[in-house]
Fold each of these.
Amino acid sequence: MAAADDYDFCGQIISPGTRIETSLKIGNDPLGQSAEIPVQILHGSNKGPKVAIIGAIHGDELNGTGIIHHLVHGDDHLPGTSDDHINPKHLAGTLILVPVANVEAMMTNSRTSPDGRDLNRLFPGSEKGNQSSRLANAIFTHIVKNVDYLIDLHTAPYTRVNVPQIRADLDDPECKKIARAFGTKVVMNSKGPKGSIRREATNIGVPTILLESGSSHRFEPDAVHGGVIGILNVLAKLGMIERTMLKPNWRILVRKFRWVRAPIGGILHTLIPGGAVVKEGETIAYITDPFGARVDDIISPVNGYVVGLATTPLVRPGDPIANIVIVREKKLQEIIAKESYDDQIHDEISEHDIEDEDGSTLDETEM
Ligand SMILES: [Zn+2]
């Protein structure tokens, strides 16, 4: 392998085979302090691709931050110990890690920036635009435009949980390659909403995948662990590290899904976990009145696989309860039902394209 040259990050020169902690300067805060986004760079000894991994574009979605922490420092959070996953001396290429993209949003436990805007609808941003648009511009100019691939880490909002799933434009061969390599059982095919970092980065030739896993406002060990494994799989696929890729035993490539919504307001009791296989006509949840009496049942309208689920009990009419991918084929239903909670690693992946003409696409409803 060819030895790497120095890496230049905003004028800071980084030697091959080293890790540095730095920041991307984005102006100043209301008290005049320097406003900065923490950035960690692992610059490999050998030449290879540049990959950015970004967490907390939505400030309350913390699992991505945890994933980046564990990726670099291992489960003990101690630098330089044997459980660290990546040693720059044995890395081919460069990792640009942004554990918290929207710092002010995170510090206020909020999805959005202090101006109330969703950063992930404002890429590529504008130098002279509003507050959030300038933040988007800084990230896009100094991080996105300087890498070959991007991984964007998200969770469901506080009221729901998402089964681990990669979202990517599967019509883009490079996106599809890293989406499949990541190794989640569910891969959602969509370009992403206009202004999302995923869509805009892919548009300028930086293939980008998005991980949705777990829920907001907390670190969830399973989501964090799965995210670390997925990233290592992608880095192995790109030839940046030496590692046997871990694969799921089945995978579904999905274009559409159904939202099942609360028919009335009340107190929700779900009867299934995320990742359940449900049958058409099956009662998946019920709603009680304030005295605890059951007043309505929520029925699955389809045979399918639950990729997202409400987790908080207070619901109003129309609130999303379950996000279900339709799985028509009986054999596939059986495979998924049997293996849903099986974390064993298999050599062969049973991969299925799920066709559904009736559901909605992520681009219509992504949040
Ligand atoms: Zn998000």
Amino acid sequence: MNNAINLTGLKIWDGHNTLEADTLQIQAGKITFIGPREAVTGPTQNCAGLTAIPGLIDAHVHLELNPDNQNPPLQTDPAVIPLMHQRAFQMAQAGITTARDLGGGAWYELNLRDQIARGEVIGPRLLCSGQPITSPQGHCHFWGGEAKTLAEALAVLQRQVGKGVDLIKIMATGGRLTHGSKPTDSQFSQDILDALVATAHSHKLPVAAHCHGTEGIHRAALAGVNTIEHCSWVGRQGWAGDFQEDVAKVILNNGIWVSPTVNRGWQRMLDNPTNGVLHRVRSAYQKMLSMGIPLVASTDAGIPGVYHADLPHALRVFSEIAQLSPAQVLQTATSNAALALGIAQTTGTLAIGRDADVLLLDGNPIDDLSAVTRPVQVYCRGRGVLTD
Ligand SMILES: [Zn+2]
């Protein structure tokens, strides 16, 4: 029998609003009560001064990648496994209770996902794509997902399905991480993208598409992917220099979420406000937001200099670049992220019956977003991961 944890005296922000309730009960990994203190019996923990919010979701990470490496290794070494466990633990301690892993070479993250789900390892709930589908020598080809023809691309997809992935990742354009691949260049024709998305969806698997250049964004949007990663609008005018409203309308009309991977290091843009990139990126985000295209928080953790547990710090940078209020940016990492990832019935909000993914913060992040970097306790499916 699992004893209930009764947290009282709280402020509670449920992923949408601040509630009247001051008490939250966790039992057997679930949220079992939210309401007034008087309604619960048994021992309570006084949480005066603390705010409970849903656990954070990072929609784009790579557990396999070491942020201290400037170049990813060409082969995945099993020696990375204990490091992946460490990274997952650090993420949980920072309040990240769900993460979507968008690529690795050896499916180690799927194994870790299952160990976490069984409670053998502490870490965020993981949704994993396995090997991304890419073109020959294309972006992240070293992970083994190269395909030239439709038949080859479908074979890579089937290999991921066989490994038990949660979604399919497609590199629709080149990227900066891979020598010889260019962010502006599209990697697949419309026909191949259409067929890959249809096949993934026939397996009930969503699709995340890596897209920097506008042409690749357009093709992925037409193909009906579920999330567009980066969405950098790169064209001849450089980063965020090629926003096209017609393309954005396709994103909107196809119900696609944009995951812009704003990491903590983008502070450098804010430190150089006269640099045109900040202006262009901000303007692209504001145009998408004003059209009604939803954004989700993501960091691309694992790429050089981007640490796995840094989402709480990245949220402030994201809020300043996209000019989102604290509540809006927290929604991109909680309730909206859960909708984008198709897990809103499980997590992303504080509600009775949801998994107990709960962050207790020192202060109120709706007034002062920095509180999100000060977790006092983190519950991952009801399990407290910070010792008092
Ligand atoms: Zn990535």
Amino acid sequence: MIKNSSKGYGWLTILIHWIFALAVFGLFGLGVYMVELSYYDPWYHDAPEIHKSIGMILIFLIAFRLIWRWFNPRPEALSSLSSMEKHASEWAHRGLYLIIVVTLLVGYVIPTAEGRAVSVFGWFEVPALFPTIDGMADIAGEIHEWMAWTLVILAVVHGLAALKHHFIDKDKTLVRMLRPEK
Ligand code: HEM
């Protein structure tokens, strides 16, 4: 089933969820690696190009994800969850979405701060939309790094919570994010 039902997630939500999980951890690792590269390293040019290109694609994907979520609400919380757990997971998910959006948009500001467009794997360009302000790239760089750390820490806690549901509580929380309800 492509759409979510009241019982479980549809395959499109599941697919996008795992694309983001992979992309967030992958881009974080690449980001930490690339800022340490010296000018003579063979990845000095390509690593940031890949990081920026994937980041730009994720901006479009998160916009689609949020529209999809708006028209296709999440399934009902499992009845085994306490009301505190239901609220905590709802707010953790909202927090994840918010931090993803801010991290991606601030990331976009870094290469476009001087008015240059960003190329996405040479396929197409995303123009610079914000006005140029002195020192903006540096400030955006700092914020991007802090937000990325916050996102990864929150995602790890979120992943651990999912594993706790699966292995300790033995409920269907993780299973329903792995395959659609039949
Ligand atoms: C960077 C990594 C990740 C991000 C950004 C992320 C983000 C999210 C978001 C935003 C939701 C809410 C979906 C919705 O209802 O719209 C969600 C749900 C979920 N995620 Fe993740 N996630 C990540 C990694 C993981 C990992 C590693 C696991 C498992 C080990 C996991 C397991 C789950 C499960 C089971 C749900 C469904 C929870 C429920 O139905 O209440 N996630 N995730």
